[in-house]
Amino acid sequence: PQTIRLADYTPFAWQVESVSLTFRLAPTATRVLSEIRFSPREGAQPGAFFLHGEGLRLIACAIDGAAVEPTLTDQGLTCPVPTGPFTFTSEVEINPEANTSLNGLYMSNGMYCSQCEAEGFRRITYYPDRPDVLAPFEVRIEGEAPVLLSNGNPTGSGKGWATWVDPWPKPSYLFALVAGDLVAHSDRFTTSEGRDVALNIWVRPGDEGKCAYAMDALKRSMTWDEEVYGRAYDLDVFNIVAVDDFNMGAMENKGLNIFNSKYVLASPETATDRDFELIEGIIAHEYFHNWTGNRITCRDWFQLCLKEGLTVYRDQQFSGDMRGHAVNRIDNVLALRARQFREDAGPLAHPVRPESYIEINNFYTATVYEKGAELIGMLRALVGDEGYAKALDLYFTRHDGEAATIEDWLKVFEDATGEDLTQFARWYSQAGTPTVTASTQFDEGVFSLTLKQHTAPTPGQPDKEPQVIPVAVGLLDSNGNEAVPTQVLNLNKTEQTFDFKGFINEPTPSILRGFSAPVVLEIEQSTETRAFLLANDTDPFNRWEAGRQLTRQTLIEALDGAPPRPELAAGLGRVLSDESLDPAFRALVLSLPGIDDIAQSLYDAGRTPDPTAIYIARKGVAQSLAAALEQPLGQAYEAMQTPGPYQPTAQDAGKRALRGAALGFLSHLDAGARAAELFAASANMTETTTALAQLIAQGTGAAQISAFAADWSHDRLVMDKWFALQTSACPPEQAAETARNLTEHPDFDWKNPNRFRSVFGGLMANTAGFHDATGDAYTLLADWLIKLDPVNPQTTARMTTAFETWRRYDADRQGMMKEALERIKATKGLSRDTSEMVNRLLA
Ligand code: B3K
Ligand code: ZN
Questions:
Q1: Cα–ligand 2 centroid distance for 734 (angstroms)
Q2: Taking Cα atoms as reference points, which of 89, 85, 87, 88 lies closest to residue 39?
Q3: Which residues form the Peptidase M1 alanyl aminopeptidase Ig-like fold domain (predicted)?
Q4: How far apart, in whole angstroms, are the C-alpha atoms of residue 767 and residue 786?
Q5: Ligand 1 near 246 CB (within 6 A)
Q6: Closest C-alpha residue for ligand 1 atom 5
Q7: Is the pLDDT of residue 644 over 90?
Q8: pLDDT at 43
């Protein structure tokens, strides 16, 4: 397979003036007719004329009406073309029903649906399927389905047909088509520019009662983007479609977003607080892409973070505004550490802007998305809020309608603010998480903070240059008052010392406030200092972080047989009972670091982690904390009830989160009694799943597992939870067996990505279970990935990341994981997607 390199980029030699498509839908033989106007691009050197096309049956094609016989390969066609403008027409046949990859045009429960990003459009028709070719599209759909949708504005419809015109030039990856028996939950929105927009969320009949929350989130997103970024919507309709078979979360197709149904459909009975939060965030994310992604797109796929990092940053800002910034930031950092730091520390590490790939779908990663968003936050910290606003305005005016690059993006910041971002650009090209080591000195009233940075080698990058790292620092006096309020230190050398003068007593530093940079901070701190910061830090992120450090230290000491230090229970107890603190924040302080987190910490400290031992130690710590805090935990459990009808608000969700955290501890003392009671009484999915997870973890949930299935067997999304809870929450020694049994369940529809991910994503999340010393889970997952690969390469490739930490572990586990990966690698006919992943994992 061919390696694609950023350095090899060349523009396409033709401009596409217009595209006109006709679809004659039929499940196994859809005809696609295209008429594409090309004209030579000024100054471009026309090489051979090549159009992408994969899995297409070419019926006929012509140039300016005269039939041509192109040269066909499995990647596309070439043919001689005139030197001036010309029209290329073609007719191809495709088979949506046979398309299980969910890439291109496919069928899901009788509905036609498309997914074109990154390179799916070439499975629909012959086209220059690259993001830097933008064109206006006209689409005519002929089919029996009552609802026929494409991008842009509707221009006509009749029995068996509909036409759509999208006036905004777009790359082919934003094309979409949906046809099916759908019903709409509709609303309207008037933009700040006075445009009256019809909003529709299209779902299968019966689901229309579960769209209100998504619709509300959409309207709030539209308002927010007008108010905060000055960006209004630009078409007369905005359609969202929910589909059950989808490889990822959602897709921002112009005017026709397509969503995994799990990120649209919600009711109190079926969706958890977390689901509501994700729906809000993902609806916003896809909507925000209309400007950051669609109006300004990427020149090539190496620039993916240009749209994804920025759009994640925007959806995080939005969620913070909706739900509170402190808790939102902690949640985002937890996710960043769990997924992106893990990626950066292993064989799949790559820069935010990668320089080569074999299959681009393998680069829709936490690094491109979440680290990409962190880079935007750092840029903002460097140029200030005003500079950021100016730069964004310039970005939108300068590049609207274009396919841009990271260089364009940084130039906009330089031009708007006068900053030199040469060194900052390293964040886009250097992989790996920098470690910042802090040490302090106090001498004659001067407090000195020395910061050193180091980034370990990553694949293909043995040596790293120093990066510019904004480190937000505040100093506290001995009463916990702010002696020096937060200021941002720009660490841009390997080592720098910053002096603060005029102290009588030594202050306590609070470093990397708000997690101002995606780095690992190392600082030697006593347990007392951490307890002091947990009690007093005025920065909520660092207050939480101090608690986190304490619990992490306690867990690691417990592995070596030490009982928890009394400071921990005392500190957590104070936070737990502090009614001035947001319950959601208190819940986060009480949540113990996961096994994967501890395993990485041990590995970083030069030790070989044993997931089973960590599981046991973690359980022991939870038990002793529960015993020490039984009374306040019991009180919180009672006090955090949310009487009355369920509301998916951040306030109520926070109470339920704290109540759930308390339940998690208390279940160690009451053998699941409270959880069983809660399960029986619960009228919402949040409490039901919280209770069920505890019962499963205690190994006492058999009756409730059956009851849940009896209640919900008719609801796919709820049953996904049922599958996932069992593999993720069960005692580790039962995990592989539980997963194997579930694969034999009649409802284990393994070709449905949500269902497959429920069972195996759950198994991966059960760290001690996945890494159980028998190696059963490794074998089981490898067997299923080998089975899934020919059906759905994208989902298979993504799930190979279960093995990305294999080098952390002992020789036995390493051997077994390596064998699993080698077995996948040796599979005949393995997809390009999965083969790239296993090769990188093994390299
Ligand atoms: N842009 C899409 C992701 C496409 C993934 C292709 N494998 C969704 C999003 O980031 O909003
Ligand atoms: Zn996105």
A1: 36
A2: 85
A3: 432-522
A4: 21
A5: no
A6: 117
A7: yes
A8: 84
Report the Cα 127 to chain-centroid distance in Å: 29
Q: What residues have CB less than 8 Å from 669, skipping those under 6 apart?
A: 623, 626, 627, 630
- What lies within 8 Å, CB to CB, of 817 at 6+ separation is 778, 803, 806, 809
Q: Ligand 1 in contact with 286 (CB < 6 A)?
A: yes
Q: 370: pLDDT confidence band, cut at 50, 70 and 90?
A: very high
For ligand 1, mutation pick of 117, 243, 836 (most atoms within 8 Å of CB):
117
Indicate if ligand 1 lies below 6 Å from the C-beta of 115.
no
Residue 7 burial (10 A CB sphere; 0-12, 13-18, 19+) = exposed
Of ligand 1's listed atoms, the one at least distance from the Cα of 286 is: 11
For the segment 204-213, what is each residue's pLDDT rounded down to a tens digit? 999 999 999 9
Catalytic residue among 54, 117, 119, 286: 286
Measure the CA–CA gap between 644 and 642, rounded to whole angstroms: 7
Assess whether the C-beta atom of 652 lies below 6 angstroms from ligand 1: no
What is the b/e burial string over 744-769, where b = at least 16 CB atoms within 10 angstroms of the residue's CB? eeeebeeebbbbbbbbbbbbbbbbbb
Give the residue carrying structure tokens 């009694």: 673
Positive or negative, the Cα torsion across 532, 536, 538, 544? positive
Distance 252 CA to ligand 1 centre (A): 7
Vertex 763, ends 332 and 682: CA angle to 5°? 70
- Torsion angle of C-alpha atoms 47, 52, 57, 58, degrees rounded to 10: -30
In testing the pocket of ligand 1, which one of 123, 221, 308, 365 has its CB within 8 Å of the most ligand atoms?
A: 308
Mutate to test the pocket of ligand 1, among 240, 248, 315, 794 (most ligand atoms within 8 A of CB): 248
Q: Looking at the DSSP assignment, which residues form a beta bridge with residue 356?
A: 5
- pTM more than 0.80: yes
Distance 251 CA to ligand 2 centre (A): 7
> Relative to the CA of 794, which ligand 1 atom is closest?
7
Query: Average per-residue pLDDT in the chain?
Result: 98
Residue type, 835: S
Q: Which helix (H) or strand (E) holds 681?
A: helix 673-681
List 230's β-bridge partners, or say none: none
Cross-sheet strand order for the sheet of 135-142: 66-67, 57-63, 86-94, 30-40, 14-24, 135-142, 161-170, 153-158
799 in Cβ contact with 763 (< 8 Å): no
**Number of helices and strands in the chain (H, E):** 28, 31
Catalytic, 286? Answer: yes
For residue 320, count other CB atoms closer than 10 A to its CB.
16
Which amino acid is present at 130? R
Q: Which residues surround ligand 2, an ion (CB under 5 A)?
A: 308, 311
Map tokens 């390179």 to a residue: 119
395 phi and psi, to 5 degrees?
A: -55, -45
Q: What whole-number distance in Å separates Cα of residue 756 and Cα of residue 758?
A: 5
448 strand-pairing partners: 441, 499
Question: Going from the N-terminus, what domains does the chain have, and what CATH number goes with each?
Answer: 1-181 (2.60.40.1730), 298-429 (1.10.390.10), 435-517 (2.60.40.1840), 713-843 (1.25.50.10)
Which residue reads 């990341």 in tokens? 801
- In a 13 Å sphere around the CA of 777, the CA atoms on its Cβ side amount to 28
Token pair in block for residue 769: 């279970």
Closest C-alpha among 82, 187, 75, 62 to residue 128? 75
Cα(120)–Cα(54) distance, integer angstroms: 9
Strands laid side by side in the 256-260 sheet = 183-190, 196-203, 237-243, 256-260, 250-251
Q: Which residue has the tokens 């074998």?
A: 779
Q: Which residues pair with 15 in a beta bridge?
A: 39
287, 189 Cβ separation under 8 angstroms: no
180 phi/psi in degrees, rounded to 5: 180, 180
pLDDT in tens, 486-529: 999 999 999 999 999 999 999 999 999 999 999 999 999 999 99
